[in-house]
Amino acid sequence: MFKKIALGGLVALSAITLVACGKSPDVTANAKGNESSKDTIKIGVNMELSGAVAAYGKAELNGIELAVDEINAAGGVDGRKIELITKDNKSETAEASTTATNLAVLNHVDAIIGPATSGATAASSLVSQKTGVLLLSPSGTQDNLTINTDGTTKKYVFRTTFKDSYQGQVLAQYVTDNMKAKKVVLYYDNSSDYAQGIAAEFKRQYKGDIVAESTFIAGDKDYKAALTRFKDLDYDAIVMPGYYTETGIITKQAREMGITQPILGPDGFSDATFVQLAGTKNATDVYYVSGYSTKVNLSNKATAFIANFKKRYKEEPNMFAALAYDSVYMVAEAAKGSKNSTEIADNLAKLKDFEGVTGTMTIDDQHNPIKPALIVKMENGAEASATPVEVTQK
Question: What is this structure's pTM?
């Protein structure tokens, strides 16, 4: 029996791989989905639990596990308990795709939450399209994750967070309207589609002067040459799209060189490791986009989430934990009355006015959530305030 199951999985994996290498007008045409059990709803977790961005994945897994335990303690979904099957994609895109296949084909899950990052989500999305098992990324922001090259929506791919271009709009509006910044430096990660997308949209939206534009590469450690070029220029802020792994170090080096202007970035700043890398004192006058904060008026649901998370993990939840927590509840809501994974995807596409801890959201026709954005300000390494920013998503 084991050999037959393994062979079947390998055949399915080969089929998916062949589709990936060729071109298909509609890869969802033969997507049959997985039949749901009468007793359980299987949710696969395809997450970055080791490797370069493990901090995101670990935070998201905490949020996922808390949500699952709460739902099961309350009776489950239509009396069915949620069963988690968790896999580590090791922060590698190829591994993320293989993991998605393992979950959808070998483990027959009803839905997959994750990956956390855009590249890994993009690598996994074809598996969902081919199998009919939805993928919900809590934090994948790349614009085209949920759409095909012809502009149509990927039927089985969703996200819980904002897309990159929206973050670029939020940053442009905030530096203009709130900071009154007429001149900025733009310094971003040129090895990341995530950072490139945010930087490109910022440039399209910002009406002030970009007095200098430069890039860095993921894995770099010494940024002093670029920072020296910026130091004596006349500008009001530095806009720095990238992940905490680099931007934390850049912030430390910038502050130690005497650069005091505000530093702004996307949700990639949102992890405690940013402060560890930057240093507590240096993480001052730093701002980043977020879909969640403990510093704004909270719903009863969000207040309870924070209290339960702190009780369980002995720390406050960050944005990534909150997004993942919401993702589980979204899948649970979509699973009500469903008989298979394709029906869960259909229901999720219709989700409207869903109250999450990251805000009340409706899924739009490209499977993005419509919900408010925040700019979080850090002082001495701690979240000092959060300001809502209302822009029209494009």
Answer: 0.81
Residues in CB range of 190: below 8 A, 6 or more apart: 196, 215, 216, 217
Q: Are 388 and 377 in contact (CB under 8 A)?
A: no
CA 360-200-24 angle, to 5 degrees, is: 75
pLDDT (tens digit, 9 = 90+) per residue, 321-343? 999 999 999 999 999 999 999 99
Q: Give pLDDT tens digits for 64-121.
A: 999 999 999 999 999 999 999 999 999 999 999 999 999 999 999 999 999 999 999 9
At residue 391, the pLDDT reads 79
Both structure tokens of 339: 């008989």
